[in-house]
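quick one if you have a minute, typing this from the bus. theres a chain ive been looking at and ive put its sequence and its fold in token form underneath. please have a look and point out which stretches look like helix strand or loop to you. anything you notice is useful, everything is just below.

***
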Amino acid sequence: MAEKSPSAVVVGAGVTGLTTAICLAEAGCAVQVWAAEAPQDTTSAVAGALWGPSFQEPLAKTLQWTEQSLRDFRSLAEDDRTGVRLAPTLTVGELPPSDELPPQARLIPDLRPCPASQLPRGFGRGYTATMPLVDMPRYLDYLTDRLADLGGSLQIRPVVSLAEPVAAAEVVLNCSGLGARQLVGDTEVQPSFGQWVVLTNPGLDRVFLELASAAETTSIFPHSDRVLCGGVSIPGRQDRTPDPQVTERILQRCRAVEPRLGEAEVSAVRTGLRPERPAIRLEAETIGSTRVVHSYGHGGSGVSLSWGCARAAAALVFR
């Protein structure tokens, strides 16, 4: 198969699908992306989106995948077209002391404890770092253009059965996210509702991220023209209707941490359903004469895992 240019269909046009399609196209495949939603309509489009450690199973592999993604994002940050920048970051919350940090956290560039005097009120421990922050609307456009430059194409074409792409291509990549529940009958994939409030940017540059086990936490992701404020995670909820009470609580928490947001105008409220799964599924099988590789279940770490999983999925195609 590696000696010719196999045809490939990637199911899904979120960050995982587009990144995987690019890796396949760069490996010589003739790639089509089939998706029910355009990239700008996916959950990926409304993500924060900060590269960070993943603590999902399989832990050894997710450690490798996030490390690979970090290398790719650091390179992408050198190109203004991508929407990726290396942002100063303050992470607070339920965090271990520096001598007890897990291997995942040790991947974070420039990680160091933040003096207590510099922490917002109410937080006892924090770390500063420099981490890739991705302007997702710009980044998804960049990925779409990069795929097109490689000869790949994108079709808005809902897929209800794997039999459809299997009949059309020698290689199929299942990057359907939450759609895997219907596409392959994987009931381990469950939705987790997220909601973000978008405000005009009053001049913020630093990311603020609270890590805690609570359903609602505080996050501030500043981009050039706007700030995404969060967050909430409600497992099992499938309704994407914004909750006005959640909006108010997000605004209260974020404005308490960053008073400059007090005068910022609310321009939108965005919601999405993260595809949670106990363990990421990244494995290959053969259906008829077609090589099928599954890559889904990334939850809220789709961006962080995107390049690592895409390169691993492409490697499985030719194994």
